[in-house]
Every structure is written in C-alpha cells, then in structure tokens.
Design brief:
80% of the residues lie in helices and 1% in strands. It is built from 18 helices and two strands. Strands 1-2 form a two-stranded antiparallel sheet. Helix 2 packs antiparallel against helix 12 and helix 5 packs antiparallel against helix 6. The protein is flat, with a radius of gyration of 28 Å.
C-alpha cells in the first residue's frame, strides 16, 4: 500500500513538472520570437540590440499582466460558476487582445501618470533608455513574484513604482512629482473602499428587493431588468470613457460619415456623450430583459438558485466588457516604456509621447493573452473563490462596482486602481454577508478557541516544568513515581485538548465569509508594490548602466 501511494505521488509530481515545463517552453518560445523579429526589423539602426532586449522585457511584462491583472475581470464570473475556467480564459483572451488592438490607440504616454519629469534627463538619451528598460524589467519581476504568491496587485502601480525608482536612480529624488505620487498612494484606500461600498450596496439592494421577498420570481420580473439596465448603462459609459478614449476622434468621424446625424468630434469622449450612449443601450436592454423574462417565469422555481441564473448572462457580458476596457488601457503598462525606448532609439531624442508601431502593440496584446492562458488560472482561482464565496448575484455586484467606481472617480478626478476596486468589491460583498448573517457569534467563538489554546498551553508548560523538576531528583519517593505517571497522563491529555482546540479554531475560521489571511496578504502586497518595484528598478538601472558603460 505504501509503495502504491509513493508511486501515485511520484506520478502526480511528474505530471505537474511536465505541465510547468510546457508553460515555460511556450513563454520562452514567445520571447525568442520577439527577439528574432526585433533583430530582423531593426538591424539597420543604432542600439538595435538594446531595442531587441527591451522588446523581450516588454513581452515578459505583458505576460505578467495577463497572468495577474486579468483575473480581476473574469475571476468573479468563474468563482460564481457563471463561466468555466476554460470559457473565461477564451473570452478574456479574445476581448483583452481586441481591446488592445482596437482601443489601444496610436500614441502612448512614455511616462505613466506623469510621475517623473523627463526634462530632468536633458539630452542624456542613454540614461533615459536605461531607466525605461529598468522600469519595465522591475515591474515585470514584481508582478511575477506577486503572481507566484497568489496576490492580485495593480500593474499600473507596478510600472509607476518602476519608473519612479529608475528615475530617482538616474536623476535624483527631484525628478519625481511627489504630489502625483501622493495621489497614487491615496488610491490604495480610495479604490477598495469605494468599490466595496458600491458592491455591498448593490448586493443589499438585490437582497431587499428580490431575495427577501416571498415571491422571488415575481420580484425578479420587476427588478432584474432594472438592475441589468443599470449595468448596461454603467458598462457602455465605462467602455466609451475608458476603452475607446484613445480612438475616439476617428471612431466619431466614421460614425458621422454613415449616420444621418453627427456627433461633435472631440479629443476624448465627454461624460455627457458616454452617459447618453449608455442610456440608449440601457432602455433597449430593459425592455429586452422584460420580454425575455416573461417567457421564463413559469419554468423557474421560487428560490435563490433561480434568481442567480437570471444574472448569469449579464455577468458574462460584464466579464467580456471589463476585459476589453482593460486591454485597451493596461496594455500601455507593457508597451509604454517599450514605445518610449523604440522612439528614443529611432529618433535619438526623448519625448513625452511616442507612436506605437504595430509590432509593439502585438507584443503587448499577444503577451497579455499568452500570460493569461499559461498562468492566469492561479490568480483567477484566488480572486474567484479564495477570498470569499461568490454566486452570480455577488459577482454581478462586484462587476457593477468595477464600472461605476471608475466612472465616478474619472469625473471627480480621483486616482483609482481597477485591481483594488475589484478586490475591494469582493471584500464588500463578503463583509455584507457577515453582517447580515450576524457572524459576530462566530468571531466570539474564534476568540474563545484562542483563549482556550493559550490557557491549555500555559497548563502544559507548568506540567512539563514540574515533570522536569521531579526527574532531576537524585532520589525519588513512591509519591514521586506516582506523580510522574500522573504527569505523563495529564500532559498527553493537555496535548490532545490543544489539538482539539486548534481543530475547532480552524473550523470556525472557515465559517467566516471573508478569509482574514487573504485580506492581510493582499493589502500587504498593495502597500509594498510601489516601493518594491521602485527598489528593483533602481537596482536594475545601476546594473544596466554598469553593463553598458
């Protein structure tokens, strides 16, 4: 039997190692392909080797974005069983890549969020190149570490930290706009709090208007179209504001050419335009949902599971649209520094804006897709099921929070992180469930278990000390031997009691709706992301500088 168990363990270990080697092989093949392509297309310019290596780092960064950041868009849908892991990955790959190619734009800011002043580099193009290279590699390494630790972190904050650290190493602390950094740091609190409050608010509204009603099906017919219409408005508005902002002028121009009315061509979509477009879609969705539900009412049971089913399709659309907007926006985290390096190599100067050649956009888009396919499931599981249990209603509330928070923040000028919003939304629905289900009793039981373990450990230490004292005696009486026998028995009983109390503590902790260990790990990762990426980038800058000089 033992030999058979060992064989099964070895078999599983070999299977896992082969799978991991396959992932690494695909990743290396992609990076080698980038290197070969860059060499073949830029061999006639100076610093072509430097550009080729930077392209590899850009591909590595893109893969880490796919492995870590995309989980926030599809994780809740997977955790709620609205999508399978395979289905979520396919949808995310298609819409992430589509968002990058369609909404990624033709120009990107070379310095993310304007956190450093590129004028501080003067005419020192080499230092600028080294700084961008260091920032890209440091951000990618930090994301890789976070993914291995199953900690969803902000890729924007990672590249911000990388640029800041490399900039300081290159030109000193005065290069950093500390006011902007302060705003970014404030998003560590603003994003999860707003996301959590909005998600909890929507879940509470759904419970009050549908779940707590005697006739849940009748309530669903009345309220589900309303909630889905709000979602439609929020996501269309969000998509226009964030997913199409980089291609807005040509998009409006094409629209005006084919329609009988025109929209004013602006540099970016205004909130009014986006909100009106969202409202038009919301009205259509409301009546479509009413008509669709009318034919389903007779087939649904008057229970929570049936209500959850009604939110499944909207949740799938939400995951797809979030992925599209993410691809359009966050691909810049991978290709922004790379585009800056390419522009500096080709032109020999430093610019705050850089054009995006198609091959650089492809590196970003395909890298995100590949990273998601190879390593995305690890973080998708964490986001979807290892923080709190999600069903379709809860996941729907999280998705709503993701869209509405970004809309509110963009209008108020507040800095927010999509990662922090999504995780904050998950925390919000989890804590709401604890509050509604009065789990203070569970928390009390946990404290009682901890107190019992502390008391029993003190008693065990006292018994062991007494035993040690008796055993040190040169001569022992009959009473001593009887006491030794009693002490051994009592020590065994105490150890059994402690073991039982620890088991009870573990079981009580499982009953908490939000895993406290997950909260600690994730918040710690958020707080140290910018400084960690900054330190890594500074080290990378000095290494690159030493190698190049």
């Amino acid at each position: 039997m033992e030999i058979k168990n060992i064989y099964q363990i070895e078999k599983q270990a070999m299977k896992k190692s082969h799978t991991e080697l396959g992932r690494i092989g695909f990743a290396l093949f992609f990076l080698v392909g980038i290197l070969a392509f860059s060499f073949s297309t830029s061999g006639g310019i100076n610093n072509s080797v430097f550009l080729a290596v930077a392209a590899v780092f850009g591909g590595y960064m893109a893969m880490n974005i796919g492995a870590n950041d995309v989980a926030n868009n599809v994780g809740p849908a997977v955790g709620s069983k609205a999508l399978t892991m395979g289905g979520a990955i396919v949808i995310a790959i298609i819409f992430e890549a589509g968002g990058a190619f369609i909404g990624g734009g033709e120009v990107v800011s070379t310095i993310k969020k304007g956190i450093i002043d590129i004028n501080a580099f003067g005419d020192d193009t080499d230092s600028f190149l080294w700084a961008m290279m260091a920032a890209l590699l440091a951000a990618a390494l930090w994301l890789n570490i976070a993914t291995m630790a199953k900690a969803p972190v902000s890729t924007t904050h990672s590249i911000v930290g990388g640029v800041m650290g490399a900039g300081i190493a290159a030109a000193g602390f005065n290069i950093v706009d500390w006011g902007t950094m302060g705003k970014i740091a404030s998003s560590w609190v603003i994003s999860p709090v707003i996301g959590g409050v909005i998600a909890a608010g929507f879940l509470f509204a759904i419970k009050k208007t549908i779940i707590f009603k005697d006739n849940k099906i009748e309530a669903s017919y009345k309220w589900v179209p309303f909630y889905v219409a709000i979602m439609s408005w929020a996501f269309v508005t969000y998509l226009v504001l964030k997913g199409l902002k980089k291609v807005w002028p040509p998009l409006v121009g094409t629209f005006n050419d084919i329609m009988f009315f025109t929209i004013e061509v602006t540099k970016k979509p205004t909130f009014t335009t986006a909100a009106i477009m969202g409202a038009i879609v919301a009205v259509f969705v409301f009546f479509w949902m009413k008509k669709s539900l009318k034919g389903k009412l007779d087939t649904l049971k008057n229970d929570r599971a049936s209500v959850n089913l009604l939110f499944t399709v909207p949740l799938i659309f939400a995951a797809a649209l979030l992925s599209f907007a993410h691809g359009a926006n966050d691909v810049a985290n991978a290709i922004g520094p790379l585009a800056a390096i390419n522009d500096a190599v080709v032109t020999g100067g430093i610019s705050s804006k850089a054009g995006i050649p198609f091959w650089i956009m492809a590196v970003g888009a395909l890298g995100i897709a590949l990273g998601l396919a190879l390593y995305g499931p690890r973080l998708i599981k964490t986001v979807g099921s290892e923080i709190t249990d999600l069903d379709q209603m809860r996941a729907f509330s999280v998705a709503m929070a993701a869209a509405i928070t970004v809309i509110i923040a963009s209008q108020l000028g507040l800095p927010v992180s999509s990662t922090h919003i999504a995780i904050g939304g998950i925390f919000g629905v989890g804590f709401l469930r604890e509050w509604l289900d009065s789990t203070t009793s569970i928390e009390y039981e946990i404290e009682q278990d901890k107190a019992e373990i502390r008391d029993e450990k003190k008693r065990l230490q006292a018994l062991k000390a007494e035993l040690t004292q008796i055993e040190k005696k040169d001569e022992r009486s009959d009473n001593d031997y009887q006491r030794i026998s009693t002490l051994y028995r009592e020590i065994d009983e105490e150890e059994a009691t402690i073991k039982k109390a620890k088991k009870s503590l573990k079981e009580d902790k499982k009953n908490l709706y939000v895993k406290r260990d997950a909260i600690k790990k994730i918040i710690t990762a958020w707080v140290i992301t910018v400084p960690s990426a900054a330190v890594l980038a500074a080290c990378m800058f000095y290494m690159i500088k030493g190698f190049m000089i």
